[in-house]
Design brief:
The complex is a heterodimer of chains A (96) and B (307).
Chain A: E1 8-12, H1 17-28, E2 35-38, E3 47-51, H2 53-65, E4 70-74, H3 77-95
Chain B: H1 13-26, E1 31-38, E2 44-50, E3 59-64, H2 71-87, H3 92-100, E4 102-106, H4 111-119, H5 172-184, E5 187-195, E6 199-202, H6 214-232, E7 237-240, H7 241-244, H8 252-258, E8 263-269, H9 284-304
Parallel strand pairs in B: 3-4, 3-5, 5-8, 6-7
Antiparallel strand pairs in B: 1-2, 2-4, 6-8
Helix pairs in contact in B: 2-9, 3-9, 6-9
The chains are: A alpha+beta (96), B alpha/beta (307).
């Protein structure tokens, strides 16, 4: 079963066409295996990206270097998944 | 069995399929379960048909969870199905709706993907079909419909989460729905349910030009969302897919609209902006309850505006 330890989800609020193009370039590259939950299409809309743990520092440094503002909305995805799994187990037991 | 079902929880595929049998058993004169085909990995695909009789009545379609990781969609569909069955005979408006129209609900539109999110990869979105010449599996089933297929907003890369697939309707899960819609021939509304970012959308996704019925669809959508918001204040945006989210070709509601199903809508349910596809289970029932109000508004409009 795939684990997401240390994966983060960030929200980027794009402010210019240049920043948008930077994110669009990130979207097409495969190396970091970024998972775009909301794709970069317009400066009016936020962009949400799940960053695999191995890519967190590279991506956040890249964004910071280009002055692209972002915030972390999920700090550790696996923690959320563990909570979800525990809740599912609890619910299953309750049902029976 | 006498055991109560917990609608405020996420469930594996087998539990959902078994619950469908319970619903049918509880409402045998209203609900039937029909197999519309099999998935790539040979799982049955079931629709719940709500019908009070008549032959090939005008019908409303809804499907939940074509993107498997969007778990609140499938969970919401279960609650809606139960609500529809429970309120028939007591809610006058719903009763008149079901006395004139049939409703079809496909609660697990991507069963292989859903099972995979429970067993292997919670973030899986696509189908599980093999792609020749690639190690990556799966096609985005909402880029696989014959509506601007292969155009902007879909990827030709099998490793991408928005891979459109080798050809339109190549995915058996899509083809099963296409065949049912075409053979039925009397669907008046098609509602696809996704989750993330709180939107109510209408066609098109493959083009950013307004469709012929844009003013009516926009007005119905806005009135529906007003009712949704009245419950908990949840804010939704309304508009065409292309204009309020992004250009995306090969989507289901574009195909249905283009074959003449005017009232084609897609929901993006609640996520609160903090949890993505891991929406806490205690938000399932609030999400289902608020969106039921919007869904009901759309269904009533369809009933009252025959075409």
């Amino acid at each position: 079963e795939r684990l997401f330890n240390g994966d983060q989800v960030i929200r980027v609020n794009v402010q210019s066409e240049e920043q948008l193009q930077l994110l669009q370039a990130l979207e097409t590259q495969q190396e970091w295996e970024l998972d775009f939950w909301l794709r970069p299409v317009s400066t009016d809309l936020p962009v949400d990206i799940r960053l695999p743990r191995s890519a967190v520092s590279s991506v956040t440094e890249l964004l910071a270097a280009h002055g692209v503002p972002f915030s972390v909305i999920v700090d550790d995805l696996q923690e959320l998944l563990d909570q979800e799994k525990a809740e599912m187990l609890k619910n299953q037991m309750k049902e029976r | 069995s006498g055991r109560s079902f917990n609608f405020g929880a996420y469930h594996p595929l087998e539990t959902i399929y078994s619950w469908m049998d319970t619903l049918v058993a509880q409402h045998p004169k209203l609900v039937t379960k029909q197999e519309i085909g099999r998935s790539y990995e040979n799982r049955p695909m079931y629709v719940l048909k709500f019908s009070t009789g008549g032959n090939n009545r005008p019908a409303i379609w809804m499907d939940t969870g074509i993107h498997s990781r969007e778990w609140v969609s499938q969970a919401t569909g279960l609650w809606w199905a139960n609500k529809m069955a429970a309120d028939y005979g007591t809610d006058a408006s719903l009763t008149s709706l079901l006395d004139t129209m049939d409703v079809y609900m496909l609660l697990l539109a991507n069963p292989d993907g859903y099972a995979y999110t429970h067993s292997n990869d919670r973030m899986w979105r696509k189908t599980r079909s093999r792609n020749s010449g690639s190690v990556c599996r799966g096609v985005d089933p909402n880029r696989n419909w014959d509506a601007g297929f292969g155009g902007p907003g879909a990827s030709r890369n099998p490793c991408s989460d928005s891979f459109h697939g080798p050809s339109a309707h190549s995915e058996i899960e899509v083809k099963n729905v296409v065949d049912l819609i075409q053979s039925h021939g009397n669907f008046k509304s098609f509602i696809a349910v996704h989750a993330y970012s709180q939107l109510l959308m209408y066609p098109h996704g493959y083009s950013c030009n307004d469709v012929l019925h844009q003013p009516e669809l926009d007005s119905v959508g806005r009135a529906a969302v007003e009712k949704l918001t009245s419950l908990y204040g949840t804010r939704y945006k309304v508009g065409s897919i292309c204009n309020i989210i992004y250009q995306a070709s090969g989507g289901s509601i574009d195909w249905t609209y283009d074959i003449g199903i005017k009232y084609s809508f897609a929901f993006e349910l609640r996520d609160t902006g903090r949890y993505g596809f891991i929406l806490p289970a205690n938000q399932i029932i609030p999400t289902a309850s608020e969106t039921w109000l919007a869904l009901k508004h759309i269904m009533e409009h369809v009933r009252d505006h025959p075409y």
